[in-house]
Structure formats: C-alpha cells, structure tokens
Amino acid sequence: MKTNKIKFGISYVNTGSALHTLNGITKFILFMSWVTMVLITFDLRVICAMILVGLALLKISKVPFSVYKPLLIGTSVVLLMNALFMFLIAPLQGVEYMGSETVLLTLFGDYKITVETLFYLLTVTLKYFSMFPIALVFVFSTHPTEFSASLNKLGIPYKIAYAVSLTLRYLPEVMKDFMNIMHAQQARGVDISNNVPVMKRIKNVAKILGPLIFSSLDRADVISNAMTLRGFGRNKRRSWYSLKPMTKNDYLTLLVIAIVLTLGFIKRYQSEQLFWYPF
C-alpha cells in the first residue's frame, strides 16, 4: 500500500545567517511591527514593497526553498479560495470602496466582474500574503527557547513563556508521532486515501488521532512530572541559558523598525481614502 508523505516545515532551522544572530526580542518586535504595518495599510504599493522585503529577508535566512515550498503552495491556494469566497459573498465590495464602477463582465444578478472588485481582491489577497514571508523568517531564525527568553525579558511571566517554548519545540515531535502512527495503521490495512468513501476515511483518520492524542497526553504528563521534580515554578524569577545580549545590530534594526512604523502611521492618518486606487 502506498503511504502518504507528510513533512512539517515550520520549525527552527539553524543556517547561521545574519538573522539568526539577532536577539529574539528584536525578531519578535520585528514580527509584531510587521503585522501592525500590514493591518494599518491598504496601499498596494506599500504591500508589494513589504512582500519584496519579506522575500529578501527569507533569502537572507538561507533556508532552502524546498523547506517552505509546500507552505507557499498551500498558502497561495488558501488565499485564492478566500478571494473567490469574498467575491461570492460581496461581489460589489470593491465598487463601494473605490467609489466607481467599471464593468468588465456581467454574470447574473448582482454578480459583475469589475475593475474595482478585481483591484480590491488583489489588494486584500496580497495584504494577507505579505505576512507569510516574515512569519517564516521569524520561525526559521528563532529558537523556541530563545523566543521564550525574549518573551520573559519583555515582562511576560516565565511560566507562560516556557509553555510557549514547549509548544513550539514539540510540534515537530507530534507530527513525527502522527506519521509513525499513520504508517503503522496503514500497515494494518487502514486506508485514508481517496480510494475509500469520505465517511470511512473520517473513521480511519479517527483511528490515527486517538493514539496520537493519548501519546501526546502521555508526553505532557512525563514533562510535567520532570518539571515538578526539578522545582519548576518555585521561584518568582528564573534565568535563561539561551538568552542573547542585545548588540549594535539589534539596536540599529529596532531604530529602522521604529522609523518605518512611524511613517506608516503618519501615512495612514493623512490618507483621505482607505484604499489606494490609481484608476
């Protein structure tokens, strides 16, 4: 029987790039500032510039394209489907935002393909996509423990920070367990391919998720007992082995982030229209 190959591509990859040398606090602030910038702008020019910068940072991270290629394809498909559903739900949304109507093709009822709607869907789709490269940069270049240390440094309680670290660290392990259980069940004749009806496929997937849940709970219990035996949570503060000191490059990066984010807020405040529309 042919088995399905599933790869988990969202995890820390140590390539020794310049981004890896930055402090976790710097990369976290970069990520949050990037998301803020995406949320406040509807200017396609700014969005395209952010995509190019994000892809450039992804290139600087030196992570092989094959690692995130499935994620890129999956994200693109989801965003295209989202654009289609947005058109089906509100076919004239772009006309309302742009204040004009240039009909390219009349379909039926209120469904018309207009230049304004296409421009609106393009802007929103690229707006969502612009967060994809920086998210990968942050995950690929930031070790979970380093990220947790950075959260604690920013004032978040270390118990919460450590929980985040454990979650990020064991997601790949959970995926490995899923693949092992899936292969074991397939060896026993459990088929989850397209060759079986949908309802039977759902039942067969449940045969995989059940052992996966119990194995994850067992791992969580082992980790909890180990942390309790070592006195975790007894002290109000704790030190971090992987906490990096702030360097000159970190402060320079934070300065650039502050300037760009300030310019973004100024531009958003001075904009007369929500969307930039050149036509």
From TrEMBL:
Keyword Membrane carried by entry: yes
InterPro entries from the UniProt entry: ABC/ECF_trnsptr_transmembrane
One GO CC term on file: plasma membrane
UniProt keyword annotation of Kinase present: no
Membrane topology: Multi-pass membrane protein
Main location, first listed in the record: membrane
Organism: Photobacterium profundum 3TCK
Transmembrane segments: 28-58, 70-90, 118-140, 251-269
Name of the protein this chain belongs to: Putative ABC transporter, membrane-spanning permease
Pfam families to which the protein is assigned, alphabetical: CbiQ
Keywords from the named record: Membrane, Transmembrane, Transmembrane helix
Family note: Belongs to the CbiQ family.
Domain of life: Bacteria
Compartment list: Membrane
